[in-house]
Amino acid sequence: MRPAVSFAYAGGRLATGLADVTTDPAALDSRGWWAVVVTYEGKVTCARFADVRPAPHPGGVWAPPGEWSSSLDESAYVAGVERIRDAIADGVVYQANLCRVLSAPLGAGADIAGLGARLARGNPAPHAMTLRVPGLEVASASPELYLARDGDVVESRPIKGTGRTADDLLPKDRAENVMIVDLVRNDLGRVARPGSVEVPGLCELEEHPGLVHLVSTVRARLAGGGWPELLAATFPPGSVTGAPKSSALTLLDELEPVPRGPYCGAIGWVDADSRRGALAVGIRSFWTEDGMLRFGTGAGITWGSDPRREWRETELKAARLLEVAAGGAGQDLDERGTARP
């Protein structure tokens, strides 16, 4: 069998001709067009491609995965929410994003290009990306911008607040969004010119397939440095960790039994020649590992959180994407048995 051809697809552009793979983010300030994946745990993959051109998404065979299992079942997730609420009451954190990872056996002959093409048709997203390089396959339909860079101008668009319709959003969602905006402002402030951090959009309503979100925009002008300094100051993304970030990371490490991998990390592209790039938060994303297809889902927890409502939010976020991967439509997550191990 011939080895699968490496490629990346993002923003209507197909990248082929793999020229280099490195774990050093300093390469993103060198030359060429790079596909980038940083796992939530901090493992960096930068892949430079020689040929980047406008093209349709490449096709490929896709076979539905087997039965899904979850790293946290409903009772464990609810208990985790209660632990976070206790930590909030004790002043340890103000907010934390509790996540779980779903896993299913890969279908026979399944090609990540086929899944990426399905997502592009069935769940189009502004920061979608499909990538295949040796040792890493990702198909992402992320709606959330972690970092966009154009020269020395940097922008982040954190999402907090999710519902089927705008009527589902609660005061808790706006409060959570504002908390994360403050965290992102502080993160960018570490590498920004003094006085340049601004919030041109706060808690704006955005519609995506099957969901609505509250989205804010934080913008800054870099004082110097490049991608390594920018990632060091802001990673992991604040919207998928919590506030204060260091305390939330410690708490989540205790509550989540498996690594998140590319989920909640960074997925995107950098054009080092033009000093432009866009990295999405790695949500609504599939990846392959050890013959398994994996997918993450989570919810932001505040003092006002209802534990079972937060569990249902994780189901809501996963449902449409799992339906696309299964090749079906209109089936509820519980009906397909995907929510519980």
Description:
It comes from Actinomadura rubrisoli. This is Anthranilate synthase component I family protein. Residues 74-317 form the Chorismate-utilising enzyme C-terminal domain. GO terms for molecular function: 4-amino-4-deoxychorismate synthase activity. By secondary structure, this protein is of the alpha+beta class. The protein has a single domain (7-326), classed as 4-Layer Sandwich (Anthranilate synthase). It has six helices and 18 strands. It has helices at 74-89, 112-122, 171-189, 227-234, 245-255, 307-326, and strands at residues 7-10, 13-22, 33-38, 44-54, 69-70, 95-105, 129-133, 136-140, 145-150, 153-157, 159-163, 198-208, 211-221, 242-243, 266-271, 276-281, 285-289, 292-301. The chain has an 18-stranded antiparallel beta sheet that branches. Strand 7 and strand 8 (136-140) form a beta hairpin. Helix 1 (74-89) packs across helix 6 (307-326). The two termini are 34 Å apart. Mean pLDDT is 93; it is low at 328-341.
Helix-strand blueprint:
Layout: E1 7-10, E2 13-22, E3 33-38, E4 44-54, E5 69-70, H1 74-89, E6 95-105, H2 112-122, E7 129-133, E8 136-140, E9 145-150, E10 153-157, E11 159-163, H3 171-189, E12 198-208, E13 211-221, H4 227-234, E14 242-243, H5 245-255, E15 266-271, E16 276-281, E17 285-289, E18 292-301, H6 307-326
Antiparallel strand pairs: 1-2, 1-7, 2-4, 3-4, 3-15, 5-6, 6-14, 6-18, 7-8, 8-17, 9-10, 9-16, 10-13, 11-13, 12-13, 15-16, 17-18
